[in-house]
Amino acid sequence: MVSRIAQLNKIAPRRIRVQAALWVTDLHGPGRDAALEARVRRWIAEDPRHAAAFELATEAWQRSGNLPGYLPKNPSHSVAGQSRPKMSGRALAGMALLAAVFISAAYLLRDGTLATGPAEQRTVELSDGTRVSLNANSRVVVQYDDRVRKVTLTSGEALFNVTKHQPRPFVVVIGDRKVIAVGTSFVVRREEPAGSAFAVTLVEGRVAIEPISWPDELPSNTVMGLNLLNPGERLRFADTATEVRDSPSIDKVTAWQRGQLIFDDASLSEAVAEFNRYGSHKMAIDDPVVGKLRVGGVFRIGDPSSFAQAMANAYHLRIVNRGNTIVLTAEPSESKQKIAIE
């Protein structure tokens, strides 16, 4: 119970959830007007936690069967000779909705957030039939409503096989951008949870990549800031806002689904960084010259030891085990010179 409360408090503290419940109650009551709506909008804009709590309260209201905004006042009852304090219909409705918020939050934390651990991959079918395959160390938040099917990738990598023939667009949010599709298959990879670097690879269909502030719909015209992908294309966004478009092998991009990592003239540093996305055992390189060595081949995701041994054999490197970290280092100076030449 304590951990559940802690999870709810990450969404928003109780006082904010209470206020959000009261706002939703007021908006569905007889006193709704333009002034009330303006106050609610200002409150939501003040703090991201307000927006999260309001969304949660709205979800709870919908799940509760559209709880009346104002419940009838209960007559006071005598208990041990004392009368219970009267509560307004608004307060009663707010309390009922707040209880629904806790229930809804528990539901969302269980089903709205999909996550994998360091050595875990999973595929989940969403309510519309869309299948989401999560790579290791990945997390998405599902937020479907009557207008849009929205999923936020907060970390890691996911393959989306979107159900076709749906009137609602399918949107994947990554930082300050989003990918919009109707029925298609594509991979989204986020390099760092807090960074803006990510990549989108289109397997089939059609997607648009655009600023998050744009409407949630596939645009009909090409405009500044819009990127449309063709099947087989990948668009990579760096933290510097530069964009790189290429056409990698789809088998290589999706190799993680088969438990493989495929490298094609990658640097050893890049290969090690990729391996470190998986499992609790990590690799490190203690020499920049070693990190520039080129790597090619197919390797098993959960076996960094075999990869390290293959690199050591190929380039005459030395393996040093430091706890859960495998360190690749150059042999004495004569071997180091040989590595530099290679």
What does this structure look like?
- With 342 residues, the chain is of the alpha+beta class.
- It has three domains: 2-71 and 89-112, no CATH class; 116-250, Sandwich (Jelly Rolls), CATH 2.60.120.1440; 259-341, Phage tail protein beta-alpha-beta fold (3-Layer(bab) Sandwich).
- It is built from ten helices and 20 strands.
- Strands 3, 4, 5, 6, 7, 8, 9, 10, 11, 12, 13, 14 and 15 form a 13-stranded mixed beta sheet that branches.
- Helix 2 (14-27) packs across helix 4 (48-63), helix 2 crosses helix 5 (89-112) and helix 4 packs across helix 5.
- The radius of gyration is 26 Å and the shape is elongated.
Overall tally of structural domains:
3
The helix content is 25-40%
CATH architecture title of the largest domain: Sandwich
Q: Helix count, per DSSP? A: 10
Average per-residue pLDDT, rounded, comes to: 79
CATH class of the largest domain: Mainly Beta
Structural class: alpha+beta
CATH topology of the largest domain: Jelly Rolls
Give the strand tally: 20
Biggest pleated sheet:
13 strands, mixed
Instruction: Please mark out the parts with pLDDT under 50 across 5 or more consecutive residues, or reply none.
Output: 1-5, 64-89, 101-111, 334-342
Q: H/E order of the elements?
A: HHHHEEHEEEEEEEEEEEEEHEHEHEHEEH
Quick summary of this structure?
The chain has 342 residues and is α+β, with helices and mostly antiparallel strands. The chain is built from 10 helices and 20 strands. It has helices at 2-11, 14-27, 34-46, 48-63, 89-112, 250-253, 268-275, 288-291, 304-315, 333-341; strands at 78-79, 82-83, 113-115, 122-125, 131-134, 139-144, 149-161, 170-174, 177-181, 185-190, 198-204, 207-211, 227-229, 234-237, 243-246, 260-267, 282-285, 294-300, 317-322, 325-330.
